[in-house]
Amino acid sequence: MKIFHNTRHAEHAGRQEMFRGRMVDCHEVPARLQHVLDELARRPVGTLHTPAHDLPLDAALRRVHSADYLDFLTNAWNEWVAMDPANAQRDALPSVWPLASRHGFRTDAPPHNFAARLGQYAFDSGTPLMAGSWAAAREGAACALAAAQAVLSGERCAFALTRPPGHHAGPNFMGGYCFINNAAVAAQALRDGGLARVAVLDIDYHHGNGTQTCFYERDDVFTVSIHGDPRTEYPFFLGHADERGAGTGEGFNLNLPLPRGTGFEAWFGTLQRALQAVSDFAPQVLVVPMGLDTFEGDPISGFTLRSADYLQVGRALGSLGLPTVITMEGGYAVAEVGINAVNVLEGLKG
Ligand code: SP5
Ligand code: ZN
Question: I want to staple 27 with a disulfide (CB 3.0 to 4.6 A). Which of 85, 116, 214, 332 is the partner?
């Protein structure tokens, strides 16, 4: 297994996120990735690599994200500081949103004010953007692209070990600690590399709304997500069982929401359902946005998987016998995230 790790991840280290009217310390911290690296040093289930510098990254990003959104991310920090030099000491968070489709606001007259533009592109105020966020997210996408290319070159399994995570980011929006959708970048690169059918199986605690939105009207990328029921769990506004795809994509999205409190037995039964659906789709390759926030000790989530369960999760994923790209998503029980992530990889290796 090739493991592409993001050497620039620590340049993104948000300080605080808005939660129910107050600022709380960020859960998505650099130590998460370091714990995975430390565990990989103890249990080397794969070889560590960094993505080549000459990957066609900008082209790959444009295949998933809109040009205006990528421009926005590229310039965001400079524009934030240009608003007020004191902003250099603060992370950027939105505090005003257009809610265009429902509340009659206009989308044909985009504001120049940067705080307003941030609200145009972000769907929550829990995703701080700072000086190094774009560099870190961009290098993370390079890891995802490199992992996809490794699998296209015959590698059985490749892991993009990166943060910030990606599965909440959509074609033209950020949120849920995500800026660039690494799993979508990998899935699209696999399609563009000649594989006709790609399955994405998202096992993060939270619904992969960004990935779903990227591929919702397509029948060449089958998206499946097992997650906390959006009626009570973040991201709340997408992830219901009746979202099955649209147009050509009808029948090519599967959501398997589970109630908060779900334990391993019921979760694993649902994973079997997901694997059957993936297998019925008959893909050439699998992409797994891997969140470890299904863990019983996760501070912001509500399932109760234990560390040893992740070995079984990996084995079940491996039982499909498909070439597999894994991207690192959530998982906020920082001390255990390394063990849990490497357990999945070890199980998957078989
Ligand atoms: C990739 C991923 O897992 N994103 C998850 C984003 C969740 N954002 C909302 C989390 C709410 C945090 N609650 C803090 C409680 C402090 N006591
Ligand atoms: Zn999550």
Answer: 332
Instruction: Output the CA–CA distances (angstroms, integers) from residue 294 to 113, 184, 206, in the order listed.
Output: 39, 21, 9
Nearest CA to ligand 1 atom 2: 330
Q: Which of 234, 329, 334, 337 to mutate to test the pocket of ligand 1 (most atoms within 8 A of CB)?
A: 234
Instruction: Return the closest-CA partner of residue 253 out of 231, 227, 232, 233.
Output: 227
Main-chain dihedrals φ then ψ at residue 286, nearest 5 degrees: -120, 140
Closest CA to 8 of 33, 38, 40: 33
How confident is the model over 260-275, as pLDDT tens digits? 999 999 999 999 999 9
Q: Which residue spans within 96-220 are E strands per DSSP?
A: 157-161, 198-202
Pocket of ligand 1 (CB under 6 A): 19, 24, 126, 165, 168, 176-178, 204, 206, 234, 291, 293, 300, 329-330
| Predicted TM-score of the model (pTM) | 0.98
Q: Give me the residue label for tokens 């506004």.
A: 237
Q: Give the DSSP H or E segment for 253.
A: strand 253-258
How do residues 8-39 score in pLDDT, each as one tens digit? 999 999 999 999 999 999 999 999 999 999 99
User: Could you give the 3-state DSSP secondary structure of residue 67?
Assistant: helix
Which two structure tokens, joined as six digits, stand for 315? 């084995």
- The ligand minimizing its distance to the Cα of 294 is 2
Among residues 73, 70, 49, 72, the alpha carbon closest in space to that of 58 is found at 70
Q: What's residue 101's pLDDT?
A: 64
pLDDT at 195 over 80: yes
Structure tokens at 218: 């397509």
Q: What is the pLDDT of residues 137-192, one digit of tens each?
A: 999 999 999 999 999 999 999 999 999 999 999 999 999 999 999 999 999 999 99
Query: How many H helices and E strands in the chain?
Result: 11, 10
Per-residue pLDDT reduced to its tens digit, 66-76: 999 999 999 99
